[in-house]
Amino acid sequence: MDKFEKTNAQFEEAVAECRHLFSEKLHDYRASWRILRPQSLTDQLFIKARRIRQLEVTGCSLVGEGIRPEFVGLVNYGIVGLIQLEKGFADSVDVSNDEALQLYDRHAQQALALMKRKNHDYDEAWRGMRVSSYTDLILTKLERIKEMEDLALKGDATKVSEGIDANYMDIINYAVFGLIKLSE
To answer: Is residue 13 predicted with pLDDT exceeding 90?
Structure first.
């Protein structure tokens, strides 16, 4: 197995872990996240990333959960973000659990395809990075998303941005890299 095949397998394994939790939560809550407006979803991602950074800096958790569950949350909310961009937000749950899982799988596959392209071009550079760098890059992506959302609320458009969807994809991929590194 070459280095790229190893990464692909690890990526798929990490996403399977995330998908399992997503599916379990769908059972308990259905697709209640469908009501989240873009700014609320960005804030939810921000909370997860800030918690990771706080744990990395202090090493102290008063609620007893570590960094790994937060990276899982970033993957899942990142995929929810892509779904919300595609479908728009709703006033009530308007997708079945099966449809939500199909949407999840499609966006997870798109994230995997993007990771494969970038991983090839950057030659596995992520493996030489620290997990804390993924956290900082995720927080940077979230700041960018906030700015894009704020511009849109003012009726203004971005000039050179790849878009919110590209930032969500990067957040997903950095979070998966974090999950992989934490497993090694």
So the answer is: yes
